[in-house]
Design a protein that fits this description.
The structure holds two protein chains of two kinds. By secondary structure, chain A is mainly α. Chain A has eleven helices and no strands. In chain A, helix 8 packs antiparallel against helix 9. Classes of the chains: A mainly alpha, B mainly alpha.
Chain lengths: 293, 286
Amino acid sequence: MPMIAIPPPAQIAPLLRGYNDAIAPRRRQLVLGLALLAASIAVACVGAEVDPATLWQRIGNFSSYFGRLLHLDSGAFVWTDPKEWFWGLRRWSGLMGETLLIAYVGTLTGAFGAFAGCFLASTNLTRPALLCTATRRVLELFRTVPEIVLAMIFVVAFGLGALPGVLAIAVHTAGALGKLFAEVVENIDMRPVEGIAASGGNWLARIRFGALPQVLSGFASYMLLRFEVNVRGAAVIGFVGAGGIGQELIVAIRKFYYSDVSAILLMVIACVMLIDFASERLRHQFVSVGKGA
Amino acid sequence: MTPMRDMLLARSADVEARHQAVLATDWRGRAAVLAGIGAAAAVYVYGLVLFGFSPLWLANGARRLWDIIGLMLPPDPQSWSQFRMYLGALGQTLAIALLGTLTAVVLAVPFGFLAAKNIVAGRIVHFLSRRALDTIRSVDTLVWALIWINVVGLGPFAGVLAIASTDFGAFAKLMSEAIETADRRPVEGILSTGGNKLHAIRFGVVPQVLPVIAGQILYFFESNTRSATIIGIVGAGGIGLHLSEQIRVLEWQQTSFLILMILVAVAVIDQISQRLRAGIMGRRGT
């Protein structure tokens, strides 16, 4: 490394002073921000009843809990006897299938709703601004209420079962997808639509050949992404009695059926990962098709 | 316009004859699309039949739901002390979200380095750490909450740990990606002008990574506020506990009031965090 000529201190001092002056406001801002953060952490610790002593005392429980998850009732490790570990495989895979189906039907129903709503919510297609804003507010309400809260209310209204879960997911999905779909619709290029209108196409032809090819790949990829999210959601929606594997999982956790908990969790994780992987593949395909078209 | 249209129409047979390949109907493609749509519709209908869907069920439920919505209005906490209690629970929810997010950040930093390609060279370490993080991420916050309740008991502390556990996986992944994409040139520049290693990290790496990470932290805080409102349903503290209780005893006015509180809190947090994020990102831009 070549030697670097360091200027004499007398020359450095004013430069350093200038630098310090220049960043002083930012430093003050940083210190203020950090103090604010520290204060809110302190308040939050009191509010959330954080107790490191409890954690320290019981952290052993955590590792032993995971240890117990990995042991059968007989005391052997779970992987020594997969048949005993997954004793309920038939029932659990049925419930897992139900979970996937809840996510699927919910996503599709929600997507229909979003499809209907997105045209009303996009400013370039809906003229009355009030209608547009109203649709947007409704969609916002749908996606801000957590789906498990919706599921709890629907279970009361519709009774126990998978359908209230489907409905809860559908409503939440309509809200979330409606916003994304509307953004896609607002961003389309109007020139193909005008081109078809200019060459004598009717309204249906304009939508079918002008708008649809532009939005379809975006819609499909958002739907797949939402399906991934909904599979996770559907897996826990059974906690409140809305069908799927969640019911089985919460019973196993609450009743300390340790090996069942790990078996069910493993199935859920494997399923979620598989779906994520498959849908990522599919989405890439949609994106490349969309770009190619 | 009409003469031109007539002229074009007269020539259309000729045009069609010359571009047969383009205009020919793609039966195979059409059949594939139709088969795909048919299969998707079949699964959809199968699901509805399996779950016992019927218009009567929908009509009855919708009527009851309508009644419930009627009972929800106007939102009302019933009493002043009740309102104060709910406000306290909301504060607890925010505290859970804040502490959970920060705990996840602190824990995720070392693992982020471990999972970054350019820091740890071993492909196996990289692959395994990524998969492990994915596994942690796939377990829902509510499940983590149930597990932590078994460890530290009922209460908000279990909620903090649950949120920290879920986000830990996601954060470590983001962190590793931010580190991987960091530009080497500022570091080289600082080293070449005589800065030491500490200078290189402070002025070369931190300014690149910090805004990205800070933006992500805020974003996660936003989404964690939403998660923290529901973990109370399984007993891990916060406003969700009251919410599920009020739904169970069918106190609809209080339920709608609690939902309203959650909506307002989420909206306010979103606003604040968006402002802060814009500020941080803007500083990076200059």
